[in-house]
Amino acid sequence: MPKVKKTVKKVVKTEIKPAELRGYDLVVVISSKVKSEKRADAVAVIKQMIEKLGGQLKKTNEMGLKDLAYPIAGEQSGWYVDLEIGLDPQTGIKLEEQMNQSKNVLRHLLIKK
After folding, report:
1. Checking DSSP bridges between strand 22-31 and strand 105-112, what pairing results, if any?
2. Residue 74 contacts residue 57 (beta carbons within 8 Å)
3. What average pLDDT score do residues 41-68 get?
4. Looking at residue 9, what is its pLDDT?
5. Which of 46, 108, 99, 101 is CA-nearest to residue 78?
6. Class (C level, CATH) for 22-112
7. How many other C-beta atoms can be found within 10 angstroms of the C-beta atom of residue 92?
8. Which of 21, 66, 83, 84 could cross-link 58 (Cys pair, CB 3.0–4.6 Å)?
9. Are 55 and 87 within 8 A, CB to CB?
10. CB 60 within 8 A of CB 83
11. Helices 36-52 and 92-101, interaxial angle, to 10°?
């Protein structure tokens, strides 16, 4: 009778680490209908969205009112804000969904660094 080799499988447990935050640039165009006094509130709402998703805000750069290349929702200009953030890659989609639902945001662009 032939010899049968027994194989033993080793079970290796891997620790599940919390996802590391990845660097992103988020450029947001806020509606020009938002007055300059309320613009800070609109930016604060965006910052709260990021923090609720477990992200970190690293830097904010308000670039001011600029003309758009083409009309968006009947508007010719918008307030540009550049945010450097750290965010879990899996929550980037959730952030973009929330940005799409925001009434003050005309356009946004989330770029991985």
Report:
1. antiparallel
2. no
3. 93
4. 65
5. 108
6. alpha beta
7. 18
8. 84
9. yes
10. yes
11. 150
DSSP-derived secondary structure for the chain: ----PPP-PPP-----PPPPPEEEEEEEEEETTS-HHHHHHHHHHHHHHHHHTT-EEEEEEEEEEEEEEEEETTEEEEEEEEEEEEE-GGGHHHHHHHHHH-SSEEEEEEEE-
Q: What is the pLDDT of residues 96-113, one digit of tens each?
A: 999 999 999 999 999 998
What is the pLDDT at residue 16? 43
Tokens linked to 108: 């946004």
Q: Which residues contact 55 (CB under 8 A, 6 or more apart)?
A: 21, 85, 86, 87, 88, 91, 95
Exposed/middle/buried for residue 10 (C-beta within 10 Å: 0-12, 13-18, 19+):
exposed
Residue owning tokens 């010899």: 3
